[in-house]
Amino acid sequence: MESRASDELAGELLTLYGKIRRTTLVGKVDDVTASQSAVLGRLIRDGATTTADLARAEGVRPQSMGATVQALVDLGLATRDPDPEDGRRTIVSATDAGRAAREDSHRSRTRLLAERLAALDPDDRATVARSIAILGPVVEP
After folding, report:
1. What is the DSSP track for 25-56?
2. Residue 90 to residue 29: CA distance in whole angstroms
3. Is the pLDDT of residue 2 over 70?
4. pLDDT above 70 (res 130)
5. Total number of domains in the chain
6. CATH number for the domain harbouring residue 72
7. Residue 125 is part of which domain span?
8. Of 3, 19, 79, 89, whose CB count within 10 A is highest?
9. What element of type H or E holds 92?
C-alpha cells in the first residue's frame, strides 16, 4: 500500500469533512445557520458564557458573535442574562428550545449518515469504524 505525505492526507481529510458537512446540511429544515448551530452546540456542551468568550472559542470577531447570539435569542434558542458577578457583562445560555432544536438537528443528520453507511459493504463499515478510532486522537487537544 502506498504511503502518502501527511499534508496530502490532511488536504483530503479536510475536503472530505467539507463534503460530509454539506451532505448533512442538505436536508436541513430549520432556520438555524451552520455558525448558529456551532455556537448553540458550544453553549450546550460547555455551558453558559459571555459573547466575548464565545467569539474567542469560535475564532470570530466579538461583533460577529454578537450578531450570531442575537439571532439565537430572536429564535428563542438562547437567552442573554446579566452576569450576577459583574453587571456590565451578559451571560449567554441555551434554552430548552435550543437544546431540543440541536438534538433534532443532530438526530436528523445522524439518520442521513446512518442510511448511507448502511449501504456500504460490512467490511467497508468496519474500515470506517477503525478510521474513526484512529482519527479521534488527531482532533483531540
Report:
1. HHT--SS--HHHHHHHHHHHHH--B-HHHHHH
2. 30
3. no
4. yes
5. 1
6. 1.10.10.10
7. 29-139
8. 79
9. strand 90-94
